[in-house]
Amino acid sequence: MSTAIFSHPDCLKHDMGDWHPESPDRLQAIEDQLILARLDGLVERRLAPLAEEMSILRNHTPGALALVRDHVPVEGEFYPLDADTILCHASYGAALRAAGAAVAATDAVIAGSIANAFCSVRPPGHHATPKEPMGFCLFNNVAIAARHALEVHGLARVAIVDFDVHHGNGTADAFRGDPRVLMASFFQHPFYPYSEPEPITATSVNVPVAARSGGDVVRDVVRDQWLPALHAFRPQMIFISAGFDAHRDDDMGGMDLVEADYAWITREVMAVAREHAQGRIVSCLEGGYDLSSLGRSVVAHLKVLAELD
Questions:
Q1: For residue range 80-122, what is the model confidence (pLDDT) as tens digits?
Q2: What confidence tens digit (pLDDT) does each residue in 201-226 have?
Q3: Are 102 and 144 spatial neighbours (Cβ–Cβ below 8 Å)?
Q4: 71 CB contacts (<8 Å, ≥6 apart)?
Q5: FRET pair for 112, CA 20 to 30 Å: which of 50, 158, 282, 306?
Q6: Residue 295 host element (H or E)
């Protein structure tokens, strides 16, 4: 089997309240669609370990770690870190599983036991900055995994591709000015987290797009801006912040993508990985809040990763 899904039941225990869109139902919706698409038996399943605190601290300050670790409330209560980033009793364990999935997937892909991986985990990560959680995110799973690849496995260059509707501001903050990491993204602008667009550079290709942008706009961004930068950078591994809230059915965003667009982006990223990175990809779930389109889009993404499309 070339593709593995990393997850853990603890990721279902993180609960920010019945009203919150980043709910445990998201992972169940993915599971339901995997069964409907008959993919469940065609990809390997691996349980996410708990990340070690040292893994978290490669990307986050001790203060950021302590904000989560030291403020988990008693069972049945909540602790708000901000208006929409909330801890319950199980949140720290779930966050360690989510980061642990990304680290374990990185180890497995680099070891060659699998070709690529998808981490079906929550809480998501790409808004979490090195100094603080925010935007539903506690720890930055993709950034932690990228630092693990660089600092534990000794890779010289990694790329992070982010196709969430929201700018991955935490990831951008983590690697700004780091010549070892290329970040390529598109994001609806103006929109949360209201990041100001930055100049395109050799290691930062974060492209703002207007609300209601569809697949034609996004494919042009990928062809004209992502791919030349990725090929010039020659990453030894690619990480994907896989947010599916740019889907036309997701009212948490305002873009107009469909499943075929996510499949197309995944194919293009895989082609870069095959040419420069021995095919090595680790993808981590970020956003996606309309349950039906989330599940369908993850299936489209996984079919390409597993070469079943």
A1: 999 999 999 999 999 999 999 999 999 999 999 999 999 999 9
A2: 999 999 999 999 999 999 999 999 99
A3: yes
A4: 79, 81, 87
A5: 50
A6: helix 291-305
